[in-house]
């Protein structure tokens, strides 16, 4: 049986909105076994973004938006890293040594790029192109991720975070909407910084001048159906409102904080 490096969800491309989920899956092709890891490791965040596949599918359904979900575990190769990033194929992740990734010769690295990483990004690029052509506007790209509630013994207080680089067209209004829910703690470039050179958003949005936002949701809040239902219901009307803003429909180049000076 062939292994699909992505899942494509159909939707209304004329709206201009599309979703991506780089770390939606913990699957591995049969030929790679478990990369030498115990099965329990694939229940952890090191293998995938917990809750993201379900949340993205529910958002796509509510928004009638097309989406691309990664079909392979980030332990195999990380689609949210540039090809030149040293963390593209992790050999150690949050205390877990990954035997199947060490040693890593150039031929195996290229095999994983060609079989999994590049087909995923090719599909995202194809969808972005289709949405742009059918909508007649700049596509609005929304990337869905999740993060652990505790990192290295320290609790993370945010319920969600918005990651961005220099283009704050989506950041400003979405942050305002989320922070209007007074019991909700929303991070601005927390718990990570959105300026990562050659990551997925840089590749498909920043470098093209397309409006975009990366939404991180804390994993304990979307670990079950009730949680993904709640967050899909919360985010869908906000993304709809964002997508209708005039400035979100234009190609605008803001550059990146990672650009050389």
From TrEMBL:
**MF-aspect GO terms:** hydrolase activity
Q: What name goes with this protein? A: Putative N-formylglutamate amidohydrolase
Keyword annotations: Hydrolase
| Top-level taxon in the UniProt lineage | Bacteria
Question: Matching Gene3D superfamilies, A to Z?
Answer: Zn-dependent exopeptidases
**Pfam families linked to this entry:** FGase (PF05013)
InterPro entries (alphabetical): N-FG_amidohydro, UCP029730
């Amino acid at each position: 049986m062939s292994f699909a490096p992505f899942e494509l969800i159909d939707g209304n491309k004329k709206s201009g909105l599309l979703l991506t989920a780089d770390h939606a899956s913990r699957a591995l092709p049969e030929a790679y076994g478990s990369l030498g890891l115990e099965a329990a490791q694939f229940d952890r965040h090191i293998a995938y973004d917990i809750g993201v596949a379900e949340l993205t599918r529910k958002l796509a359904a509510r928004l009638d938006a097309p989406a691309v979900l990664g079909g392979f575990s980030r332990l195999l190769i990380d689609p949210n890293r540039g090809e030149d990033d040293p963390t593209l194929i992790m050999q150690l992740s949050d205390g877990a040594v990954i035997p199947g990734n060490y040693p890593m010769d150039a031929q195996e690295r290229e095999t994983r790029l060609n079989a999994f990483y590049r087909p995923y990004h090719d599909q995202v690029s194809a969808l972005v192109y289709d949405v742009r052509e059918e909508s007649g506007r700049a596509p609005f790209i929304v990337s869905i991720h999740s993060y652990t509630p505790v990192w290295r013994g320290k609790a993370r207080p945010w319920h969600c975070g918005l990651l961005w680089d220099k283009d704050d067209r989506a950041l400003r209004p979405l942050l305002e909407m989320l922070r209007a829910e007074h019991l909700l703690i929303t991070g601005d470039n927390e718990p990570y910084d959105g300026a990562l050179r050659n990551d997925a958003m840089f590749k498909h949005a920043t470098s093209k001048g397309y409006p975009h936002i990366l939404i991180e949701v804390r994993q304990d809040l979307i670990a079950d159906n009730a949680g993904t239902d709640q967050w899909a219901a919360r985010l869908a009307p906000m993304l709809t409102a964002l997508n209708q803003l005039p400035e979100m429909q234009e190609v605008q180049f803001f550059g990146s904080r990672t650009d050389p000076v």
